[in-house]
Specification:
53% helix; 251 residues; globular; 4 strands; alpha/beta; Rossmann fold; 7% strand
Length: 251
């Protein structure tokens, strides 16, 4: 296995961001901060690339843990960017009220996925707003890592939507190493990953660990057969999230 050069890759990502922004005459970034390592690392990368004055962090609680917002504030304090808190709890509840009465068991998955969709709508609203206020274009930065993307651990129309993806080609362990280079506060960087929506850790929901996913992507035979089958199934069942079929008229 090739050694991961965290310092070099961190520099490469920062250069990638700066180059893209310069080539496209862009100005800033909006980052949804969950209180976890992925969004913290992305915020840190955007600050290093663009400067803290050009980064807007956003906390989007919706029946969320107070600790997540506190951890987001810790990242804000460390890197010095503006942080907005936009509480989606009432909006979520009003949505459910308007929807009417359905069996609670039937709406569990819909409820979980509604929250990231509301969050992404908010981030794009703020990106457009700050583009006007600052008189330069703000993009929404994605915070998904390579392991999450491989098994489809994201919501269509939610956290799958973004304008730039700084860490999408890095596994969870690699993201942590990049975070170490960027001096991301350890309480956030080593925090057990959770979606903040279902009261379960990511790995509990997936049924496999991120280390196993990373190993599988490197070599399918490097993990237990049952684990490999689980990861393969998750990957195959999520392919529809990446490829939207488009009918083309027959000539």
């Amino acid at each position: 296995m090739k050694t991961f050069e965290a310092v070099k890759e961190t520099e490469n990502i920062i250069d990638f961001i700066r180059t893209y922004y310069k080539e496209n005459n862009l100005g800033g970034a909006v980052v949804g901060l969950s209180g976890g390592k992925d969004s913290a690392v992305v915020a840190a990368l955007m600050v290093k690339a663009l400067g803290p004055e050009n980064v807007i962090g956003v906390t989007l609680p919706c029946h969320s843990k107070v600790k997540d917002t506190e951890d987001a504030k810790l990242i804000r304090d460390y890197y010095g960017f503006e942080l907005i808190n936009f509480d989606l709890t009432k909006i979520f509840e009003d949505f459910k009220l308007e929807l009417g009465n359905f069996n609670k068991e039937d709406t569990v998955n819909s409820d979980i996925n509604l929250k990231p969709r509301l969050r992404m709508a908010t981030l794009y609203y703020l990106a457009a707003l700050y583009s006007v206020i600052k008189q330069k274009t703000f993009l929404v930065a994605g915070t998904s890592n390579k392991c999450e993307l491989f098994v489809g651990y994201f919501t269509k129309g939610g956290d799958s939507v973004y304008d730039i993806a700084p860490i999408a080609d890095f596994t969870v362990d690699e993201v942590i190493q990049i975070g170490e280079v960027l001096n991301v506060p350890t309480t956030v960087l080593y925090k057990k990953p959770s979606d903040g929506l279902s009261n379960q850790t990511d790995e509990e929901k997936l049924g496999v660990s991120y280390k196993e996913i990373a190993s599988y992507m490197e070599d399918e035979n490097s993990v237990d057969k049952k684990v490999a089958l689980k990861i393969k199934t998750l990957h195959q069942n999520s392919l529809h999230k990446f490829n939207i079929p488009k009918y083309q008229r027959k000539k």
